[in-house]
């Protein structure tokens, strides 16, 4: 059997998520370059240190460190987009310079209804939507701490699994992290939103409470938000399992103390994924004329908070 | 005509509200003593300085400054209760030592459904419920700044206006501040709650936005909360005017930049009137089985905020 050439990957947005999954691809033999704006000089010199509670500690030296995708020479098999989904970041513009006919675009990002922008801009490319179930933070320049979990779920849009997706999945698995594929990745995105929609904003609006305290104090309110997400998903054609709220509540009770990504962004003065997680869900609700007052409330308060912060 | 003896008043909770209205009573000739716990030594020495944009600046020297009501010698005609309504303050215990058969109990306080506790404890006394429409802050020990407005509205419980109330009202009016009486003071309390229920918690949860910014950014949400208060008031037998939400919105657009009392308490690390304003309204809604999800959301978030602050 002919051994295939190692795939060429360009990671755009090499923070905690991009750096971690990029490092796994490199470990499995892929040629992994990164676009890294904020820590460019440091990462070009030193690469990344990955400190994983599950896999140990290693250095990830990207094949190239670039300031933007236009600097990339040659063609990539995969462009892996791992930025935050916030209004100030133009996702299409970031990846466009490196996308050719054969490029598969993978995004590992939070939020719902974030697909159309990419689908419209690149109608002839394979678009792979990815969800990371991971607890992973960048603790300092080029240093990524992988605390727990790690599973990646991938699926082509609108709903299939391609060979390229399978191949990508294998590379992640080879490096020791679970990767699954699904023909219903859009449904999976709504499932993840069931947890994100309450806990991300509540951690910020409470002034920094961990998830367990939020749940112990206001379980009914958390459930109310979760149920609204389920109803929106259903009218959008993605009926979620009947027990999904109960399962999310039970899992959160036994999770280690956890700071949500929105809380980390808030504490660091970074833009938050309010629109990707809450705004998009609410717009989907409004399209379908269902009322979701808990979600509306949380969204309104997040907008006020952002206004106060000048975000 | 025989000139009646000046009435004896004991003010309990001599912060901005108690100090200001107490000073007006003294100006009009009443014998006004105060219970003043936090600034006792200072006020005993110096009295209060009242700095009013409307009435000028003067010194208010109470006839007595006490640490608690039990120290009061003799009997009072009026006990004027002006503390915050928060779970850590036992309002009944504060006034009990000084209440005799002829004492009228007046409370000038925020919140809805705060009457029963006092009515139950003193079933044979005149109980007068008061609402202050005033912008007034204690800026330092014994110094009270009266910025704007000032109207006091009084009414006996459950629904009348007594001679004692009229007499009290006259003293306030004599000193230059509007005072009105009403036979429906409980309805007035719900009316005031229409404004307090959104703006107080939203100013805190937004991280300190002034009322105008809140309104400009999230008017629909503010209206949603106001409408829920109107519905609760109605099922409690207090139908509010049809245009009350519109009037409140319009008035707030032309109000000077204003920090709510809850925001001031929050910034000073003091307990907030979450239960008196939101909790009591919500409990009234639950009794009547109407759903008020916006109010529920705001209440849940305030409870999380208090939990984080250790309040």
Describe it for me?
The structure is a homodimer of 311-residue chains. Chain A is an alpha/beta fold. Chain A has 2 domains: 8-183, NAD(P)-binding Rossmann-like Domain (Rossmann fold, 3-Layer(aba) Sandwich), CATH 3.40.50.720; 187-309, Orthogonal Bundle (N-(1-d-carboxylethyl)-l-norvaline Dehydrogenase, domain 2). Helix content of chain A is 44%, strand content 20%. Chain A has 11 helices and 10 strands. The first copy, chain A, has helices spanning 16-27, 40-46, 91-95, 116-121, 163-174, 185-205, 211-235, 244-254, 261-267, 274-287, 293-309, and strands at 8-12, 31-35, 48-52, 56-60, 65-66, 78-81, 104-108, 126-140, 143-156, 179-181. In chain A, strands 1, 2, 3, 4, 5, 6, 7, 8, 9 and 10 form a 10-stranded mixed beta sheet that branches. In chain A, α1 (16-27) crosses α5 (163-174), α6 packs across α9 (261-267) and α6 (185-205) crosses α11 (293-309). The longest helix of chain A has 25 residues, at 211-235. Chain A binds chain B through residues 202, 205-209, 213-214, 217-218, 220-221, 224, 293-294, 296-298, 300-301, 303-305, 307-309, and chain B through 202, 205-209, 213-214, 217-218, 220-221, 224, 293-294, 296-298, 300-301, 303-305, 307-309.
């Amino acid at each position: 059997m002919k051994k295939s050439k190692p795939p060429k990957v360009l990671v755009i947005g090499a923070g905690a998520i991009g750096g971690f999954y990029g490092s796994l691809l490199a470990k499995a033999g892929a040629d992994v370059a990164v676009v890294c704006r904020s820590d460019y000089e440091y990462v070009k010199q030193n690469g990344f240190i990955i400190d994983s509670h599950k896999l140990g500690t290693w250095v990830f030296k990207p094949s190239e460190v670039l300031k933007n995708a236009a600097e990339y020479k040659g063609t990539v098999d995969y462009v892996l987009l791992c930025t935050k989904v916030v209004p100030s970041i133009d996702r299409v513009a970031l990846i466009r310079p490196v996308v050719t006919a054969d490029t598969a675009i993978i995004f590992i990002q939070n939020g719902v209804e974030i697909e159309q922008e990419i689908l419209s801009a690149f109608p002839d490319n394979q678009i792979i939507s990815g969800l990371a179930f991971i607890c992973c933070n960048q603790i300092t320049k080029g240093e990524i701490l992988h605390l727990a979990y790690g599973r990646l779920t991938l699926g082509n849009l609108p709903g299939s699994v391609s060979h390229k997706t399978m191949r990508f999945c294998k590379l992640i698995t080879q490096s020791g992290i679970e990767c699954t594929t699904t023909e219903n990745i859009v449904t999976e995105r709504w499932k993840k939103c069931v947890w994100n929609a309450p806990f991300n904003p509540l951690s910020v609006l409470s002034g920094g409470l961990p998830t367990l305290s939020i749940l112990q104090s206001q379980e009914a309110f958390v459930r109310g938000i979760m149920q609204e997400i389920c109803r929106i998903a259903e009218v959008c054609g993605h009926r979620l399992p009947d027990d999904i709220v109960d399962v999310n509540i039970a899992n959160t009770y036994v999770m280690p103390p956890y700071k949500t990504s929105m809380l980390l962004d808030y504490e660091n003065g970074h833009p938050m994924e309010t629109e990707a997680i809450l705004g998009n869900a609410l717009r989907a609700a409004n399209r379908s004329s269902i009322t979701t007052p808990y979600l509306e409330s949380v969204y309104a308060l997040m907008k006020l908070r952002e206004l106060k912060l000048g975000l």
